[in-house]
Design a protein that fits this description.
With 221 residues, this protein is mainly α. It has helices spanning 8-18, 29-68, 86-110, 114-142, 154-185, 193-219. Helix content is 74%, strand content 0%.
Length: 221
């Protein structure tokens, strides 16, 4: 009975055929799309900020002319409005802290730590809800009236900017919910790092935009 002999080429082919399929990295379609979506929001807020600054500067120049003529100048933000720094500052620090928990979520997803990843996303959603609650409180505190007879467009622009930022937070929370769903439905969170990384990109941009709002509206007024 003759024995069967295998050449080195046959052995190499056998090893290759028995090897597992290579890992195919996920495409960055979601991250690229989120970056484009985030850029759209940044450009939108850039237009709002430019409108606010130009309107405020034009108003102040007009009031300087009134003062030169001996008339009493009118403030850009009506004196009846109560513009406090406490709530905006608290929101700013809340959003800064949320950047840490957002990175915690990305870190946990990369290490297949489902429990801490979902916990980080839940904490992140709590921060978002807290900021929305503070904005609503601030609207009531301001007491700005859009149809004010002074002619100032401050109320309209302030409400437009802050309400747009609330809408951005709501979208961010939807992204967090989507990331949490993918984490709970998947066997390994490492497969969905791109989801939470995309949410983090959007969240960081949202925090940066609020920092501009804080300085532009509530610090410099």
């Amino acid at each position: 009975m003759s024995g069967t002999t295998f050449s080195s080429t046959d052995l190499a082919h056998a090893v290759v055929s028995d090897a597992p399929a290579p890992f195919v990295p996920r495409k960055r379609t979601l991250q690229i799309g989120t970056a484009a979506f985030t850029a759209m929001w940044v450009m939108y807020f850039g237009g709002l900020f430019a409108t606010y600054v130009s309107s405020r500067n034009a108003w102040n120049l007009a009031q300087d002319g009134r003062a030169a003529e001996g008339d009493t100048p009118i403030s850009w933000i009506p004196d009846s409005a109560q513009v406090e720094l406490t709530a905006p500052t608290v929101m700013t620090w809340t959003l800064i802290m949320s950047m840490v928990t957002m990175q915690w979520a990305v870190y946990s997803f990369k290490r297949s730590d489902r429990r801490h990843g979902v916990l980080a996303l839940a904490t992140q959603a709590m921060f978002g809800a807290a900021v929305i609650n503070q904005v609503v409180f601030q609207w009531k505190q301001l007491g700005l009236v859009i149809d004010d007879t002074s002619g100032s467009s401050a109320a309209t622009l302030i409400y437009a900017i802050t309400a747009s930022h609330v809408a951005m937070i709501v979208v961010a929370m939807c992204l967090l919910a989507f990331a949490a769903f993918r984490a709970l439905a998947s066997s390994d969170t490492k497969d969905h790092v791109d989801v939470v990384a995309a949410a983090a990109t959007y969240w960081y941009a949202m925090v940066a935009l609020y920092f501009v709002i804080w300085i532009l509206i509530f610090i410099t007024k």
